[in-house]
User: Fold this.
Amino acid sequence: MRAPALLALIALAPASLPAQDVQLRFRPPAGRVATTATVTEMVMRGGPMAGFVTHPDSPMTRVTAFQTSTVTAVGDGEYTEEQIIDSARMEFPAAPQFAAMMEQMGDLMAGTSTVSRMSTRGRLLAVQMTPSPALAQMMGAMGQGGGPLTMGTSQVSSPSLWLLPEDAVRVGATWRDSVVVALDSSGVAGGEFRMAATYQLRAHQGSVATIGFDGVYAVTGPDLPPGVSFVVTGEVRLDLARGRLAAMAMEMTGSMPLPPGEIPIEVRTRIVAR
Assistant:
């Protein structure tokens, strides 16, 4: 056989191998430290805020935050992680007149801690957020408490922004998941957070899994306006071997019903591991 023909067969051989099912689980080692940078932009058009927007095509707010997370415990099928905001910056591209009044909020966020207990599938089992001392003082002055905010395991069965499938899957496979979260312990009496999403394993190279998701997030409650829901689309890259998020891009579109009318809202979030 001639060399070119042999090389062609070698090049085609991997493509002829059958796709393999893989069990996707997120198992970070205890003590693992990871850092991420998160940029969240919110675009608001029309409604009561229209008069304040001088640049309608720009985000109303842009929050850039740098976080450090540490895996503090690893159990059977779950792990606990603490995330601390190292620094944050808040900008108002569409309404720069708010910058002087609100830019200090970024400084207040630094030091805020969130402790989450997660399943290896990405399901949030419990979470406690402790505001920084400066933020707690401001919240107390506004009559909003300022102490730790906790949702216990009996009330929480919520997702992170990704949920891994129960069974082994191969590239191209899709799965669907949904959850309902009671919000009573977070101060929304009788409130619920509902999520239903479809996920797809788009790629799996080495230890990195790329997962796309499309779904709907909604918040309901007797003291909340009706129709608070968002269509969510995005893609997340997970480094399963290192147990960390590698990157994520997500967009939420919906509206917030407020008098005298609804405000169309778009929220765009990007997360990159550093």
